[in-house]
Amino acid sequence: MSSFEWNKIIASILTAMIVAMASGILAGQLVRPKEPAKPVYLPVAAEAPASTGGAQGAAAGPEPIGPLLATADPKRGEQIGKVCTQCHTFSKGGANKIGPNLWDVTEEPMASVPGYQFSAAMEAHKGEKWDPEKLNEWLWRPQALIKGTKMTFAGMPKAQDRADVIAYLESLK
Description:
Blueprint: H1 3-30, H2 53-59, H3 66-69, H4 74-80, H5 120-123, H6 132-140, H7 142-145, H8 159-171
């Protein structure tokens, strides 16, 4: 192939690139996207804005778990807790995964599972214990209880589900 043929090929490629770039600039000038005034989609764990006084009280924290623990079903809690097995183990002496092993976690000090590297936010609560109320708040929204925790779980909105999981955790002794 002669140098003249190569020049035509290179010129064709450069021309196509210039036309594509000019088309992109022109299209960007003709069509300008508008940002929505408020988010269209909010994740489950996102804080909902408070609209009234009654709704504000409900969004401030989970309902007390004590009354629901009386009727909680540990077997149902075990079934609900199966989604937690992606990150946690529940067996005695079980290995830590992405999250710590949860065997006998109730009434134990926070951030005390041997061999697990907790976040600095969790380490700040090291002297506190995992009682049912604290577990209730944690399962409701982990980020609401300990801001900066590395646990990305969105939370359990249903109080009875949380009570059942806490009853299951209390049965692991």
